[in-house]
Every structure is written in C-alpha cells, then in structure tokens.
Design goal:
mainly beta; Porin; two-stranded antiparallel sheet
C-alpha cells in the first residue's frame, strides 16, 4: 500500500481539496481552500432598464432591456489570476428591428424574435500568469489604453458615451470584446506591454491589430507612455471597387513578426512591404499634486512628420487628442466630490484607411478609439457627489460632428478625392449641447436603482431619459 505521508506534495494537494469550503456572502458565493491558494468567486446580477428618447424630426421611442449577468473571478496560486462575465439580454422596443445576418459589418449579432423584440449576449474573460520577469496575458476582452476619462482616442475599451446620431434599432451600440494574447515586462520604473488581437470586419475574413506600449514612471508621480498599433486584414470590398492601386482582394494572414517584443512596428511594416495601417500614440498622466491629475492622449495616424500636424493641405495628416484635468476625493462635510473636464479633437479621416474595411481602425463596425469618430470635437465636464449610498452626477458637453467626406470610419479616400482636409467645415457640421445628470441609490450591496436625464439643444433638440434597477448577489 502506498502511503500519502511519504509524498508531502501529494498530501498537501489532497488536503487542500478536502478542505475546500463554500462561503455565502451578501453579494457572491466563494469557493476557497484552507490555504487560500485556490479561490473562485461567483456572482450574478438581474437588471432591468427603460430608456425614452424624444428628439426633433424623430418619432418618440422607448427601449426596454432586461438582462441576467454572471460573474466569475479568482486565482489558482498567487500567480494565476482570472475573471469572466456573461450578459444575456432581451430587448423590447416600439421601433422595428431589422434582421441580422451575423455579419460583423452589421455590428454585434443579435437574434430577432419579432418586429419589436430581440435577444443577444456578450461575454468577456481574461487571465494572467506571472513569471519572472514577464506576465503572460490572454483573454476575450476589452482593450483600453490611455488616461482619458471620457474619450479614449487610442483604445476605448468599454467606454461608450451616448451619441444621438448612433441611436438606432438596426444595430447594438455596445463596443465588442476581442480575443487576444500578450505579455508584460516590468523592470523598475519601466513597463512594456504587448498584445496581438483578432478583429471582426466581415464574416470569414481575417483582420488583426497589434499593440505595444512602453510606459515610464517618472518622479513626482508622472507617467509617460509611447505606443504603436499595427492593423491589417483581408480586403473586404469587392475586387475592382476600390480605385486605389494598392487595394486588392487578396487574403492576409497573421503576421508573426508583429508579435515579437521590442521591435518598432514602423520599421517592421516597411520590411513587410509598407502595406499596413500603423499609428503612433503618446499618453501622459501627471499626479504631482495630491488628488489632482493632468492627462492627455495624442494619436498620430499615418503622419508624415510631427510638424505636419497643423498642415491641412494633405488629408493624410491625421491626428486625434484628448486632454483633461481631474480632481478626486474632495471631502466637503460628509459629501465626497469628484470633478473632470476634458477636451477632445479628432481630425478628418482619423481611424479610416484608403484600403477599406480590412484596414480601418474598427471592430464590429465601431471604432476602437473614441466613438465620436473622425472630424469631431467635444468639450465635456462632469461633477460627481457621493453621500453614503447616494451617488449624484451632473454633466454638460458641447459636441460638433462633421458630416462631409472623411467624417465616417467607412469613408475611403481615392486618387480622385481632394488632397486637402477641412476640420468641421461650415455647412457640413452637426452641433449640439447636452446637459444632464444621473442619480444612483444603493441602499444595500445587493440592490441599486438609477435614473438619468439628458436635455439636448441645437441640431439634436429633445431629451433622453433612463431608469434602471438591479439585484445582485
């Protein structure tokens, strides 16, 4: 007979599984072994929301969404961390819902149940394993880059402010997660992160994006980042429909050279034939003064040189920026305040590419950067106040959005197109102001109720109101 006591490792593993316990808290269920080397937390949430929108020249409509959400996170040893979540949704509306052909060009897929009802689901998951000196990363999740609070111009992740021009029942307005793998090196004040991700533009056709960022933590709580993205894929337009000489319908496969660490994409792309969509970006966060932050993001998309930023004579001088100032943890009596003001400017043709959909900065027909899209501008300010279980937010924004050629991520510049660009050209620009607020009440950890209201002035005149409740455990 084999004695377990002769093998301490086997004995420890057996003991850990025998001593597995289940704990029920107010908000989740936890499975954990006695040594806490293995821990799994499981939670769920029921949510119901109702949105009314009344804008001029548009029939009043309502959208009711009910969802059940499941959450899982935990660790197996201190080095292996994981998290996952699933949303299953049912939507009702007084608008007609068109059919969905499950093509990414139509956005996130949904199942049409009737003229006014649909069901859909989303999931996201990620895991990391810490080695020395590298952390391995993988997931099917949202990628976010930069310190901006309202408009990330580099990678927006799940950030998704409401835009009146996107209000439609023809597609879901949620950003989509993406499958990826990557790694992160951290040595002293230097952090290097790299991702390779698959994007979806057309069913059955390949599209990929590679991202790497070199971050530097400086004295006085200053963080500086330099990043690049490389984007490419199979041309999605029919052969012969794009008059650009270098646009074709040949397939593209995964370029493994972009997955090698520490190689500048701009050099690698030249070696591979100068055929991909390369962008360079900078991000900066200054927290030298306690509770204050100055931040900024700058994206250069196919720029000729830094000095060409302000040259409107060439359409390809594409850039975008978000800069802001934020103040947190301001305690006045029992009320905790937070405030942020941010300015965003996105030049014409940013996020587009002359080769078409296989090379645009888009995923499921939505930009990976700010959902303002190209040729747009926003000034946004927000004040948040928290008192016990009550959370109040007041906000205002001024938005301008171009409508002429070069203002949509699907626009394709051709040899016959004008070679100059015009930012927010007079007569081709939508303008509106938004004033609003939201109130969230969480009397207990397992229940919350939220209401919000926005009033629009200008080219979008009217209001949008929302109420939602959730029960979580």
């Amino acid at each position: 007979m084999v004695s377990f006591m002769k093998n301490p490792l086997r004995t420890s593993v057996l003991f850990s599984f025998v001593m597995l316990t289940m704990a029920w808290s107010e908000t989740n269920i936890t499975f954990v072994d006695s040594a806490r080397h293995h821990e799994v937390n499981i939670g769920a949430q029921l949510q119901d929301s109702l949105v009314f929108v009344n804008l001029k020249n548009t029939p009043t409509h309502y959208d009711n969404s009910m969802s059940i959400r499941f959450f899982l996170d935990g660790h197996f040893t201190e080095n292996f961390l994981f998290a996952a979540r699933v949303n299953v949704n049912t939507d009702y509306t007084n608008r007609d819902i068109p059919e969905h052909n499950y093509n990414p060009e139509e956005g996130i897929p949904y199942n049409k149940q009737s003229d006014n009802k649909r069901t859909w689901d989303l999931f996201a998951a990620h895991a990391s394993y810490q080695l020395e000196p590298v952390k391995l990363l993988a997931g099917f999740d949202y990628l976010e880059l930069g310190p901006a609070k309202r408009n990330h111009v580099i990678l927006r992740g799940e950030t998704n402010p409401y835009r009146p021009w996107q209000d439609s029942s023809s597609r879901l307005q949620k950003p989509a997660p993406t499958p990826y793998f990557g790694y992160q090196f951290e040595i002293g004040p230097i952090q290097y992160t790299q991702y390779a991700a698959k994007l979806f533009e057309k069913k059955g056709e390949n599209k990929y994006v590679h991202i790497h960022r070199l971050g530097l933590s400086l004295p006085e709580n200053i963080t500086l980042g330099l990043s690049e993205t490389a984007l490419y894929g199979t041309t999605t337009e029919a052969a012969g429909t794009n008059p650009n000489l270098d646009a074709d319908s040949s397939g593209r496969d995964f370029e493994w050279a972009y997955a090698i660490p520490f190689i500048p994409y701009v050099f690698q792309e030249h070696l591979q034939g100068d055929q991909d969509n390369i962008s360079l970006a900078f991000d900066l966060s200054i927290k030298s003064f306690r509770h204050w932050e100055l931040y900024g993001e700058l994206l250069w998309d196919d720029m000729k040189s830094p000095t060409s930023m302000f040259d409107d004579g060439w359409w390809g001088n594409k850039w975008a920026t978000s800069v802001g100032i934020a103040r947190d943890s301001l305690l006045l009596g029992p009320v905790l305040f937070r405030w942020v003001t941010e300015y965003t400017r996105i030049e014409p043709w940013v996020y587009t590419h002359h080769k078409g959909g296989g090379y645009t900065y888009a995923h499921y027909n939505q930009t990976l950067g700010s959902n303002l899209g190209p040729n747009s501008q926003e000034i946004y300010t927000e004040l948040n106040a928290q008192l016990s279980f009550v959370d109040l937010t007041l906000f205002g924004s001024l938005v301008k959005k171009g409508t002429d050629f070069g203002s949509n991520i699907r626009d394709i510049h051709t040899p016959d197109s004008p070679t100059d660009k015009h930012f927010l050209k007079h007569g081709n620009t939508l303008y509106y102001q938004e004033l609003g607020g939201s109130l969230k009440v969480t009397p207990w950890s397992f229940i919350s109720v939220e209401a919000g209201y926005s009033r629009f002035f200008g080219d979008y005149e009217g209001f949008a109101a929302r109420v939602a409740g959730s029960l979580q455990w």
